[in-house]
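## Example pair
The file below holds two records. Each record gives the amino-acid sequence first, followed by its structure token line.
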Amino acid sequence: MLNDKRLRIIVGHYGSGKTEFSINYAVKLANMDRKVALVDLDVVNLYFRSREKAKELEKLGIRVIGSSIKASAVDIPAISAEILAPVQDTSYDAIVDVGGDPTGARSLSFYKEYLIEGQYDMFFVLNANRPETQTVGKVIEYIRRIEATARAQVTGIINNTHMLKNTTVEDVLKGQELAERVGEKTNIPIRYISAIEWVAKELPGNLKGQIFPISLYMREEWMV
């Protein structure tokens, strides 16, 4: 399980659930007694960022790296130089949560020299319920724009089609169909099928990709 490259980069459209996936991935690795770093490279979105859960994640042994501006009352798009530690130190399993659009992916291009082909995975998180990623053409265009901006190649698709806590098996299967069609056109494999735990239990076992049950760390109990 989770036999991906040591450096995993998570990209996708805003609202696709990439931050939730990133956190769940980091937690699963930590539960496997791995040395884990979660890098929040999102300098675009002001809400639902992985660094908001830093205290909880650090209790699990996960190193969280985010903005270099350490103040709760401000939000300045600055990335800590600490990011290079897990990128260069091969003892880390690193997850990099990148800003949710081609503009957000631009920050990744600054680290191009460390993104050596074959030594990283870049996963595109697909939510087929987002208007901007509901067709094969739109998804492929979005992937290519992110690749061009980030100067890195997508190596896998994550079907994370959801409606938050109201997600159904039908939602996930709709996203799976779209992900498979995109995969056929691009030769990009489906790596994971991410779904909230009670939905993941109901998914058929013959789907392309590994079923990846998640918890909703970014949604408080009172949120729908």
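Second record, same layout:
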Amino acid sequence: MKTGRYSLSQFAAIMLLAAVAVPGPNIAASEFPQADLVVVEKAKRKIHLFSGGEPFRSFDIALGIQPIGDKRQEGDFRTPEGRYILDRRNANSEFFLSIHVSYPSHQDRAEARSQGVAPGGAIMIHGRPNEPTRSQLYYETQDWTNGCIAVSNSDMIDIWLMTGDYTPIEIRP
């Protein structure tokens, strides 16, 4: 459902983020712990937020529809593995919020070039689609992305608030 320029879920996210950003009597953005590292464990379908070497929050994830193995080329539906940076945010994504992962690295590009393929890109941590085409149960139980890391919309709000720009992310097999 659209509300002017934004879908209903985008509008809800904007309103929530605006409420958190403006100090009020009950909550302020500074009250949220901040991650200095994000770790994804693909095999366990988990994402963990770390501070000072200790995990403080964990969330269930969905991956690319070909979850086993490292991303090698555009269109392989795999989630990359390695060390990257969360380098930009998009509140107007086609998914409920998104945070970009700095894939492909120079090494990823070199490996793809040596194979004569494009490495792909646009790898994000994001919520559910703003305009779902499947049931909620599907999004909760299946690997369904093109290579991204997906979480529930409520988990995406927490991750959005507890990570900053340039937070390192390690994606493990």
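Notes on the second record: The radius of gyration is 16 Å. Residues 34-172 form a domain with the L,D-transpeptidase catalytic domain-like fold (CATH 2.40.440.10).
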